[in-house]
Amino acid sequence: MALLGACLGWLAGLGLALALVSPIAAHTVLLGPWLLAGAGALLAAVVARAPAARLVALVAAAAVLGWARGLAALPALADDPLQPYHGPVRLRGVVAAPALPGESWTTVRLDATAVWRDGDWLPARGGVLLRLPRTAPYDYGDRLQVEGDLRPAPAPPASGYGEALRRQGVRAALDYPAVEPLAGQSAPAPLAALYAARQALGRALG
Length: 206
Description:
alpha+beta; 29% strand; elongated
């Protein structure tokens, strides 16, 4: 009976999380409090003496932990977490790969961490392909604030290039946004130094 109740509680919590919480909003929900609540209910089930109280606590623990598991799974279901922000947008993020200079522009992949909405910075996630002037001085590990017109990634997912972008987590693009470098750097120091040297050499060669 206890095992059946726990299974039903787990499935109920998992199903409710998947049904009631938007995948795009899931990353804003803290898992820690739910895990603590589940652990507390599980502890109550262990120490409870009355069989009915033990069963209720066990089902509650399974339901809360199932809910937490559902929340943890939701971000992977968000096909394009930046889609609600298409159009004029201000983002903050970290350059997640070395810049790729072309003949006319430089391409930079930014992993978004925050979006400006209603006078405040909100957590955000998703890769953004930035097209910048060829002389743009930004590279791997730089923290940037960018502002421009956010649009879908520049190639259909079915194309080879589009599929490569999707594997890298890129879902959106900004062409020639206004860029403001932010203090700090998220790249490991040796890698950052290596990429900075490579960039300086590239500028020196033309």
